[in-house]
Amino acid sequence: MDVIFGNLDLWGEAIANTLMVFFIGGIIALVLGFIVGAMRVSPVPIARGVGTAYVNIIRNTPLTLVFFFFVFGYPQLGLPELSNTVLGILAIGIYTATYVAEVLRAGINTVPVGQAEAARAIGLPFGQVMSLVILPQAFRSVVPPMMSVFIALLKNTTVAAGFSIAELAALRATINDAPDRPGNPMEVLLWVALVFVVLVFIMSAIQRYLENRWRIAR
């Protein structure tokens, strides 16, 4: 247990950074994914085209390359300087937004077309049709796949370790490079894996709770 208690400061920083990347990246993904998902089902051809292009380009690009663009390409654009942590959060949020958008689009497609047509027939604009009629029903059907997307987001935070972001996956190198720190690399990796297992278990429990609650509400 020396690897834990002898490095509590490093573990605290790594877990805090991992959760920060996960939560803020998740918020970006949810907001942007909602917008892109709405564009994907929009009756406006230009909006559909932009949404489709965004999803196809970003989703088909490896996450590591997205990180490379943000961490190494962004500073070359002459834009306001941002830390690697902020750039990593933007990278993972923008990447995950494509999966959120597709999950939402699939959920929207499960709602009978007649309901949208009836809403438009009484004069509701597209925004109100989506927010008042379609999305409340679609959200119930997308809980399992949406939670799978966020579990993948949590595990994808490990990519940030390769870009000077001090999160859990970087802990092995941090401890290994400090001779006065107890613990060997394999032992650190096993504990990191256990932390991720616990976090995923918590997210799975939240998923079951939401499924049961919304199933009763139907």
Automatic annotation (TrEMBL):
Domain (ABC transmembrane type-1) ranges: 15-207
Family assignment from sequence similarity: Belongs to the binding-protein-dependent transport system permease family. HisMQ subfamily.
InterPro entries named in the record: AA_ABC_transptr_permease_3TM, ArtM/GltK/GlnP/TcyL/YhdX-like, MetI-like, MetI-like_sf
Annotated transmembrane regions: 20-41, 53-74, 86-106, 118-139, 188-210
Protein name, entry field: Amino acid ABC transporter permease
Signal peptide: none
Keywords: Amino-acid transport, Cell membrane, Membrane, Transmembrane, Transmembrane helix, Transport
Organism, scientific name: Microbacterium istanbulense
Bilayer topology annotation: Multi-pass membrane protein
Chief location bin: membrane
